[in-house]
Write a structure and sequence with these properties.
The protein has 245 residues and is α/β, with parallel strands linked by helices. It has two domains: 4-138, Response regulator (Rossmann fold), CATH 3.40.50; 147-241, Arc Repressor Mutant, subunit A, CATH 1.10.10. It has helices spanning 28-40, 51-61, 77-85, 101-109, 122-138, 173-183, 192-200, 207-221; strands at 4-5, 20-24, 44-48, 65-69, 92-96, 114-117, 147-150, 153-156, 161-164, 167-168, 190-191, 231-234, 238-241. Strands 1-3-2-4-5-6 form a six-stranded mixed sheet, sandwiched between helices. The longest helix has 17 residues, at 122-138. It is elongated. It starts with a strand and ends with a strand. The model is unreliable at 1-17 (pLDDT under 50).
Amino acid sequence: MPGRSASESGGACPPRRGRRVLVVEDDPTVAQVITGYLGRAGFVPVVAADGVTGLELAESVAPDLVVLDVMLPGLDGIGFCRELRSRSRVPVIMVTSLTEEEDRLRGLEVGADDYLTKPFSPRELVLRVQAVLRRSDAMPPRPAGGVLRAGDLVVDRAARVATKGGRPLNLKNKEFELLVFLLGNPGRVVRRDELMRAVWAQEFGDASTVTVHVRRLREKIEDDPSRPGMLMTVWGVGYRFDLPR
């Protein structure tokens, strides 16, 4: 299958009717099944058989959503999503044959909005595409700029850079967004389901995803993660970000 291709229902320059879905999948049979179901559901699918071509199409076609295989030749799905997130907020649904929880968390960590394990029902994929797009449409615009501060912790939303004591923090994409949301709501108890909606754009999700990301974030921003002074756990409810006094 050539590096760049387009489904019969879409093409590299699809008509403006319907919402465009970029399918990055190296298995031509799987790609054909996915695009067929998406096309019948009213979407305009565009196909790339590798990650590099997928990034090029994401730039030129400006899809409304990306369906992304993790196991790709060359640039894999994790690398693709990490690079895409540096330039775009387009929703991403990852599909993979990997079943370990750590693999799923890695996908969510680099910015995926949903995750589907092979083998999957094409109808379920279409329903998830529709659901993710509805959630994305309902989300308020994310603040493009501004600086948030908590003591020596500084978060520049426009540059997507966080520093503590003048030293850059190596935050993953979801860790950064989690920090922005919590720091933007100081002193308020935030439930885990609210964080799933605000940061992961998921109405329902595994609460352990939030727990893991909070733990990793706490390790990076707290002087003593075992005795946090900012990112507090409110047992049985959620989390609260306290500004230093």
